Prior knowledge:
The chain is of the alpha/beta class. 45% of the residues lie in helices and 13% in strands.
Amino acid sequence: MMARTGRFRCAVAGLALAAAVLAAAPSMAATLRVVATTTDLASLALAVGGDLVTVDTIVPAGADPEAFAPRPRDIEKVRGAGLVVRVGMGYDYWLDGLLRQAAEPRLMRGGPAYVDASAGIPLLEVRGESVVNEGGHAHGVANPHYWLDPDNAVIVAGAIAEALARLLPAERERILAQRARFLSELERRRTRWLAALAPFAGARLVAYHNAWPYFARRFRLDVAEFIEPKAGVSPSPAHLRNLIENGRRTRVRAVLHESGEPQDAPRFVARELGVPMVTLAISVGGVPGTDDYLALFDANVNALARALGSGAR
């Protein structure tokens, strides 16, 4: 009886010790909470982090990050985040205010839980200005829409993977493997996207907003003019008249309408030029069927190839 009692006490002590160890160790089910300013960065963070992360987005799908006004609940979303990922270059300038209010040094610029995804990106339309605000749209030192070149996703995914591996060192190999799988699929689809738009190399396009230089460079397109005379400024009749005259002379092939922007002016220009108007998504979730980063390019490339094919000259 005493022997059995001793064994029972040893078993209880062993279970207590095991419970204490489990309580002290991170839960296998625990995940790192990543907060991304945009849906595009959120999608890339999820692709790299997999089930090691949960991802929140500050700017809702379909909203304009350049004109976004943070809400009080966004402070709480940032506070306590495991990692913050931003577009940078003034595109999400309002994040700095949220980070100051969150008052967590690790999330601030240079902190271990802060990623500016623009670092290392070959920038286009570089200009010697600090962040300015025009018509409710913020602009920094260069055109900020760099995620619309799929090659830049390689750089962004690498930066996110490096940050996650720093914060989750025991999961480094798993994170790198997930990044490698994503990049392999990205390359497979990139080959398909390039082939789909190759027949239209050099095609001249009119866009509503200057969001497409990275996309145009990668797919060898020419976005010649913009319906907005300045970011956030509605076009005047004189501006539209000049745009149409130039479009006829230079043989514009299509008008790009960005989801979330007004439709009347681009539809009018397309009708006057006798070319298709094609609606594209600037960001993940901008139109149906763009639920992640790869789907964003599937949808945009397919829509543009169909439009240019139907309006071939």
